[in-house]
Design brief:
- The complex is a heterodimer of chains A (about 250) and B (about 250).
- Chain A has about 250 residues and is of the alpha/beta class.
- Chain A is about 40% helix and about 25% strand.
- Chain A has 2 domains: about 1-70 and about 150-253, P-loop containing nucleotide triphosphate hydrolases (Rossmann fold, 3-Layer(aba) Sandwich), CATH 3.40.50; about 80-145, no CATH class.
- Chain A has helices at about 45-50, 85-95, 100-115, 130-145, 160-175, 190-195, 225-235, 240-250; strands at about 1-10, 20-30, 30-35, 60, 70-75, 150, 180-185, 195-200, 210-215.
- In chain A, α6 packs across α7 (about 225-235).
- The longest helix of chain A is centred in the middle third of the chain and has 18 residues, at about 160-175.
- With about 250 residues, chain B is an all-alpha fold.
- In chain B, α9 (about 160-200) packs parallel to α10 and α10 (about 205-215) runs antiparallel to α11 (about 220-245).
- Chain B starts with a helix and ends in a 5-residue tail after the last helix.
- Classes of the chains: A alpha/beta (about 250), B mainly alpha (about 250).
Chain lengths: ~250, ~250
Amino acid sequence: MTALNVHIQEKVFANGLCALSDLQFETRQGQFTAIVGPSGAGKTTLLNIIAGLDGEFSGTLTPAGRKLHMGFMFQEARLLPWLTVQQNLELVIGALPTHAQPALLKKAPELLHEVGLQGFSDAFPRQLSIGMQRRVSLLRAFIIQPELLLMDEPFQSLDEPTADQLRQLLLKLWQETRSSVVFVTHNLREALALADRILFLSVRPAKVILDYTIECARPRQTHDDEVNRIHHELLQTHPELLSGAIEQRIIDR
Amino acid sequence: METLPGVKQLPVRTLGLLALLSAWQLLAWLLQSDLLPTPLAVLGSLQQHIFEGELMSHLGITLLRVFTSFLIAMLIGSAVGILMGSQRQWDHWLDGLLILGLNVPALVTIILCYIWFGLTEVAAVLAVAVNKIPTVIVAVREGARAIDRELLKVAQVYRLPARTTFFKVYLPQLYPYLFGAARNGLALIWKIVLVVELLGRSNGVGFQLGSFFQFFDIQSILAYTFAFVIIILMIESWLMRPLENRLNRWRA
């Protein structure tokens, strides 16, 4: 079953800059799709369109962004600082239909335990470490059991061990809920470790230049042999990717 | 029971007040003039006004006027401030009026209100509110301009209802500004209410002070001022501070 069908003819910013052009793809229900592209390619713009935050583009999006029941993980944790962990979770649950709320609220302590935050439900975000804040943010995205989960480079700017922990946690929660995931990153290894499938975007104006399905079974790590092999193979067979994602990643470092 | 936050700082504050009182006592002693009664005499007069006079009822009426106009000013000022801070066109349109409002002398507004609406309670409260609204607008507009749009996006993607978005995501960002406005607001409103009462009401602290002025009854004037200061200190330490601490808990 198709979870999401994106066909963007053109997205032009007010200043005349063309961010996306003829970009189209489909995702299946429950699929983990990674979108890899160089910095500034318009990945965040694409997510904003899917999320319904940005409606000014030509093309079609089904289901329309505003109709989807979705979770979103931003580049930072972006919790509400004046609400406790528990209240932050209650806030998003409160937006769901009333009959769905009690069951989800009851699950909160269990989930907090699962992500290692037992005992922190009454803490304010400021009292938590960066990694813990991300975990709350991850939980916030999953606790509403979204049909679609959008993630905008959620683990960048974290140290590698913390990022790795969060990736494992993400996979675990995903396997429990089977939400469709669209995960944006400029880190190819991260995409290889997580996703079922990778869409490579070109430099601006972005379109999909390669749709790659990862055959190798999970669990995978960002630096295990299997990922190393695919990584190497991909760059050999598709040297054009070097101009995009990979090169940019080296510059970023 | 928790100790009230105001209580902890009490010793230091009391010390400052005691120093002032002693200086006053000393000066009154040296001058030996009717124009400067000693603190003790004022305290006696205060006691007399409370138990034998009408201080409590006048104080009550004044307090009621203060709170009514304070509420009106905060509500209208916040609404307009949010509007101007978030919508550029409104900011352009109303900015001139705002500057006018900030600069019209309080006395002018009071006199005009009394002339146009008669010597009534409504005119009195309105005059005070109109004086205060512009400063609330300025403070809240500043806050509305500093709103973190990224947090509003969270509300948007998680489809929070407008009400929840306003009270849980938007308004908490304005609290510091609202508190600033409320603090300055009370201070300003006290002062204006007294003038309003002096000019056109037949009760309240302002009216009483006017009467005492005619008799050069300095002792009573100071006694009323005393009562006033006590009330303000109580509001500050038992209402404003605890509330502020509570709302700022997450910053700790």
